[in-house]
Design a protein that fits this description.
Length: about 120
Amino acid sequence: MTVTATLPVMCAALGDPTRWEILTRLGEGPKSASTLARVLPVSRQAIGKHLEVLREVGLIESEQRGREVVYLAVGARLGALARELDRIGRSWETRLLRLKELAERPGPVAPETSE
């Protein structure tokens, strides 16, 4: 599955403020669900559900470390998402610049008519 095929799904997952905060915190380094639950204003069960959504769209992965499961942000996937969003942004900037140039271009002056 390509990033462009899953871009809307990933963006929808990140549209939730709690999932965004979880991903931000995982960007600082691996963390367990319990660690995340201690610093976020939601229950441990809610954290688990949010982690599952992020894992399903490929933005995080889990890893067993001893008796604990830790979660990590998937850098390659996030990088691909960032590049795709950047490409979309550049495309819109190009379109807007063209529109601005057209709007500022002196156009033909219509001849005055005398009635």
